UniProtKB/TrEMBL annotation:
InterPro entries: Phenazine_PhzF-like. This is Phenazine biosynthesis-like domain-containing protein. Belongs to the PhzF family. GO terms for molecular function: isomerase activity. The keyword Translocase does not apply. It comes from the Eukaryota. The active site is at E33. Pfam families: PhzC-PhzF (PF02567). NCBIfam families: PhzF_family (TIGR00654). GO terms for cellular component: cytoplasm. The keyword Isomerase applies.
Amino acid sequence: FGGNPAAVCLVPSEMELSDEVQQKIAAEMNISETCYIKLTPLNSKGEPPRYNLRWFTPTCEVPLCGHATFAAAHVAFEQGVVKGNLIQFMTLSGVLEIMKRDDGQMRMDLPQGNPVPVELGPIESLLYEKMNLPKETTIKEVQFCAKTRKLLVEIDCPNSPQGNGGVLTNLEVNASVLHTLKIEDLDIRGVIVTTAPTENDKQYFGKYDFVSRYFAPWNGIQEDPVTGSAHTVLFVHWGKKIKREEGLRARQASKRGGDLLLLPGGEGR
């Protein structure tokens, strides 16, 4: 009862589903993402199998979704859509490749986000208000990723007995209020709140390099359980602060929650 559920629709080559129908199905599923694999091979024989893949929330199509891509690959492997241990998807974010390992686990190649610093001064009080941050919380850094349209807010709670992770886990964000957050020149479609565990974080310290939560009421998602696209931004942010050859260990601290291992790929991946 953890992780992030996704609906996967296998669309036969001869069937055409309009955008309207795909959106209505996603609204009927009413989970963070419903994805559609068009079962028309895009590659020639002898090349890695490649298919079109699209993702819809209950209210809109999105350009990138990690967990639903894992779900799509799992279904493709299990249903015999592809033979072997490799599949590629053509998406709005380019080609994504998923490899199935011998132990059954999968590894996905995602494009890195491009977060840049946002001046905190003019928006600090606004963030405290819209995100319902406790007074003892310090906002350490704010970044915005134009590629994914996600705002990243790093917090620190040095004097809290709960520890950083505890404060983040217990943070009560009203998605309706957050939805009214507007920052000049930023087209925000999601907010990432993140922190590094402290020694009094019994649940997280020593197990994870950073913890996060993700809210996207702009896309019809109050809080996403585990978000691959958010971690394309988090990996860049934390990768500049934490150097680990074996990858960064991440925990998304939603009610369902999920663990991620983030490794560098090729250039920009």
